[in-house]
Every structure is written in structure tokens, then in C-alpha cells.
Amino acid sequence: MKKICYNYKEDWRYSIINKIKKVVIGIRTLIKLFVILIVAAIVIVSIIQFTYKQTYSVSLNGEIIGYTKDKINLQKRINDYISSGNGDDVAFVEVKDLPVYTSCLLKRNVETNDDEIFEKVASSGTAYYKYYAITNNNTEKVYLENFQDAEEVINKLKEKNSANSSKLGIVEKYETAKAEFKDVETSVNELYEKKVTYVSPYRNIGTTIINEASVPTDLGITLIRPISGIISSRFGIRARDNHKGLDIAAPKGTAIKAAAAGKVIFSGNGAGHGYSGYGNVVVVQSTSSVVILYGHCSEVNCMTGEEVAQGQIIAKVGSTGISSGNHLHFEIRYNGSAINPQNYVYN
Ligand SMILES: [Zn+2]
Fold it and tell me: Which of the 8 DSSP states describes residue 196?
């Protein structure tokens, strides 16, 4: 009989090896399981990725209006439109609600629709249109779609010497509705104002020769304005005749001051005294060369032969003689020729 030799040491080793073997098998099983899990996960993710795509659902006012893959670009496009319009007629847009993006998976065959989302957001806002008004005397008259056209209208009116050229302006408009636009030609026609040459209601008087020298004669004296008022007819060529003085309209009774000191050589009704048509007239000899006439007076306040000072009241405005309204006919004669008073006063 074989002696059973109990080897304590051997038995102990065997036990350890056995335990290690079990642990190794355990680890192997775990690794296998783990690999299987990873493979399974990869397969599932691949299937998901193959079937679905990462997108954002876009909602406006709680209602889903579409899907986008690129929310950053879409929102940038929306922001640009809100702040700067479409680069054409829309200047900017007021939008109450901005879209909300929610991350989601979407089946690959479902289309994203950035353009549609953009249109929906854009149309939910209030667009402000930019256009231009041409103003005449600060009143808006015609509307044009762009600035170049508006400028062209004004330039054409200036070229045509339109009476209102200096009163025209361009105003930039931002409105929620477009105006009725006109083209350049129509605008020019509508705005054009013919220059009306002022024709004095006061008739020419006297027969004195007019001296229209371009260089003003040096009178040797300084004149003051005999009255304040509106110049109603200038010196020189008029529609019907040559005007030998300057007409200044003012109410009847307005005091007329001597424009320069001098000796009154005539005062009273000029008819039959060489001043026919002048009505009540004061004629002052201011220097040996300069004679000043004040015509159509309602009354005279100086006497023939009297010396008057500059600024002294010599008569009152009226409409005597050949005249159709209260005014002063102010006439300066230099060596017998009428010269333009506006070379000296009212200039
Ligand atoms: Zn006159």
C-alpha cells in the first residue's frame, strides 16, 4: 500500500494556484462581458447615428416651427436681419419673441428647414422700411425708394432753376409701411415751380435817363434808409418800362426820413413842376451832383428852400400821383441821371 504522504506544503500551494485560476477565469469573463458591452454600445450608437442626426428643434412662442443643425448660423442670420434689415428696403425689424432652440435627435430623412424658420421669425416681427422724402419748405412732398434718386431730383430742379430749389431737402424715413414711390421724372415734374418775375403794381414815372453803370458812382456821401419796408420794385428794366427809382412798400403815414442832408429844392405836388406822376414829392439837393427824390407821399413835412438834416422826417408814405399802392418811390440822380439806390442802401 502506498503510503499516503500528507504534504501540508503541497496542499497549500495547490489551493493558492486553484484560487488564482478562479480569479483569472473571473477576470477573463468580466473582460469578455465588457468587450461585448462596448461592442454592443458601439453598434447601438452607430445604429442611432445612422438613423438619427443631432439637431435643434426651434420653437417660437411655444410652437415648434422647424429644425436646424446649425443654430449658431441661423440665429446670426436672424440677428442680422433684426438689426440691419435685408440690405434693401427693410432697414431693421422689431421682433417680440426670439426662437428657442432645444437639442434633439431627428431621423436622418427629416429635412432641416433653416430658410423656413428664418422666414417665420422674420414675418413675426415688424419691418421698418427705409426710404426718402423730398421736402419743400419742410413739408414732405414726394417719396423715393433710394437716396441717389432723391438727390437726382433735387439736382435736376436746381438745373431747371426751379423757384423752390433753395427750400428743398431730403429726409430719411423709417416707417412700418412703404409710401407710394415716385420716379425721378415724375418727382421733378411735381416739384417744379416756375420762377415768377415780380411785376410791380406801381407804374414808372418821370423821364430821367437811367445810368446803369456796373461800377457804382461814388456819391461822396453816405445814405441811410428813409423808411423800413418791403422792396416792391427794383431799379432798372421792368416788364413794361425802365424804373428810375426803388419802390419800398410801407403803410400809409410811415415817416420818411431824409437819406442824406441837403436843401429841399421842391416840396409839394409835383404835377406841373417837372415832377409829373410823382404825386406829393420832396426833392433834396444833397451835393452839387446828388439829388434825391421821395415820391408818392401822402403829405410833405418840409418846405421848398429848407435845409434838412440826415434822418429828419421830411414826408409820409402815401400813394399820390401815378401809383397803385402805398409806397415810397426813392430815386437818386447823379448829375441828372437816375442811378440804382441799392448800390448805396437796401443792399
Ligand atoms: Zn417807383
Answer: P
What distance in angstroms lies between residue 298's CA and the mean position of ligand 1's atoms? 15
Residue of 176, 157, 159, 177 whose CA lies nearest to 168: 157
Give the end of a domain, one of 176, 191, 206: 191
The parent domain of residue 156 ranges over: 129-191
List per-block mean pLDDT (blocks of 10 residues) for the chain, which spans 347 residues: 59 84 91 93 85 86 88 88 82 84 82 86 86 90 92 92 86 87 93 65 52 75 94 74 86 97 97 92 96 97 97 97 92 91 90
In a domain, 41, yes or no: no
Structural domain count, the chain:
3
Ligand 1 centroid to residue 308 C-alpha, Å: 23
Instruction: Assess if residue 148 is contained within a domain.
Output: yes
Q: Give 52 Cα–ligand 1 centroid separation in angstroms.
A: 97
Measure the CA–CA gap between 142 and 173, rounded to whole angstroms: 12
Q: What is the DSSP string of 198-240?
A: P--SSPP---PPB---SSPP--SS----S---EEEE-SEE-SS
Compute, in angstroms, the gap from residue 214 CA to the centroid of ligand 1: 21
Residue where a domain stops, chosen among 124, 153, 168: 124
**The whole model's pTM is what?**
0.43
Ligand 1 centroid, distance to 265 Cα (angstroms) = 20
- Domain co-membership, 284 together with 234: yes
Q: Grid coordinates representing 138?
A: 419742410
Q: Could you tell me if 180 and 235 lie in one domain?
A: no
Q: How far is the CA of 242 from the centre of ligand 1 (A)?
A: 10
Going by C-alpha positions, the residue among 133, 138, 56 that lies closest to residue 99 is 56
Q: How far, in Å, is the centroid of ligand 1 from the Cα of 313?
A: 20
Q: Check whether residue 241 and residue 338 sit in a common domain.
A: yes
* 339 in the same domain as 234: yes
**pLDDT tens-digit readout, 71-126:** 889 888 888 888 888 877 788 888 888 888 988 887 877 788 888 888 888 888 88
Determine the distance separating the centroid of ligand 1 and the alpha carbon of 335, expressed in angstroms: 19
CA of 201 to the centre of ligand 1 (A): 10
Q: Distance from the CA of 231 to the center of ligand 1, in angstroms?
A: 10
Residue 33, in any domain of the structure = no
Instruction: In whole angstroms, give the CA distance from residue 92 to residue 79.
Output: 10
